[in-house]
Specification:
Largest sheet: 4 strands, antiparallel
Distance between the termini: 13 Å
Radius of gyration: 26 Å
Strand content: 25-35%
Low-confidence stretches: none
Structural class: alpha+beta
Protein name: DUF6232 family protein
Keywords: Membrane, Transmembrane, Transmembrane helix
Pfam families: DUF6232
Order of helices and strands: EEEEEHHHEEH
Length: about 150
């Protein structure tokens, strides 16, 4: 028996797929397909919040420089305002690495739920539903390989 994929809740072998305590022999699966579920507006809003957090310090720095130039203050006050504004703008550098990493993770997870369906004993059955796009791809590809090896026998 060959194991194509295994984690805490899914196991795909050359004989069967086990998901959530249910076992489906590969020979009994007539058709397997995938579909996308509803869009997660929470994930999209999270990406927007990350983008706003990246732009916030830059906008604050630009506003500070505009205020420094338009306010008729002494040269030392203007230089101080521009200096502080530049420091605020530079603060986005260390923050950017952290935020962009979270942005990458949000794209890896995806913004839609992904589903694997199969026809089992004449009925459509939802085998898996997940929001993790990377995990979904690994499971779906493993299931394809297992089904291909079953068809060759």
């Amino acid at each position: 028996m060959v194991t194509y994929y295994s984690d805490k809740s899914v196991q795909i072998t050359s004989d069967a797929i086990r998901i959530g305590g249910r076992r489906y022999p590969l020979g009994e699966l007539a058709r397997v397909w995938h579909s996308k579920g509803a869009r997660s507006w929470r994930a999209i809003a999270g990406r927007g919040a990350i983008g706003a957090a990246l732009l916030g310090p830059l906008v604050a720095a630009a506003l500070g420089i505009v205020v420094a130039v338009t306010v008729h203050a002494s040269l030392s006050v203007t230089i101080a305002i521009v200096g502080v504004s530049c420091l605020v703008g530079l603060g986005v550098g260390p923050l950017a690495d952290f935020l962009l990493e979270h942005m990458d993770r949000s794209y890896a997870r995806g913004s839609r739920s992904l589903e694997i369906w199969a026809t089992w004993r004449g009925q459509p059955v939802l085998l898996l539903q997940t929001g993790d796009a990377l995990r979904f791809g690994q499971i779906y590809r493993a299931l394809q390989r297992a089904l291909e090896s079953t068809a060759v026998r």
